[in-house]
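Q: How would the structure tokens look for this protein?
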Amino acid sequence: MSYQSANPLSEEFELTLSRPLTAYWLAIVRVLTGWWFFHAGVTKLIEDGLAFSYAPMYLKGMTGTALGPIPVLMGEYLGPFLQAGVPLGETLIGLGLMVGALTRLASFFGAFFMVLFWIGNAGFGHGLVNSDLMGLLLFVTMMVLATGRYFGLDAIIEKTRFVQQNPKLRYLLG
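A: Here is the predicted structure in token form.
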């Protein structure tokens, strides 16, 4: 990072991600976050298979929350989808992040999960900032900085002829 030392309030700001230490750090953050989600998903799959009944049960019990009847209805009508979707989603998101493939797409869905967890867990004993919000920030950071390009498969996938011919696909990679 650099800024004008004569005027630190200047609007000119540069964030350089080309340093080797930055690339290593972003890859480490991506892999560790991927392991976190992969482990959570695989553990649920081993214990419950595709019948992770805690998700719909938890949502059905959220009566009287700030979200009103929305989580209760979700638990009631989306139960079978949630039972399979949570463990599979966590596993696939984690796997994608660990190998660095479709990182932006995986990070988007990871951020989506973390928003739901943040609202659903509602452990705001220390204010709005909790571990679910920190997870959300990790996923958004990986999405914005395209961390799959640093020691991940996205760096290889971006060079394929198919992606070169369809440049909009690069927005899913990173």
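The longest helix spans residues 20-48.

Helices lie at 20-48, 54-60, 70-77, 79-99, 103-121, 131-145, 153-157, 161-165.

Upvote if useful.
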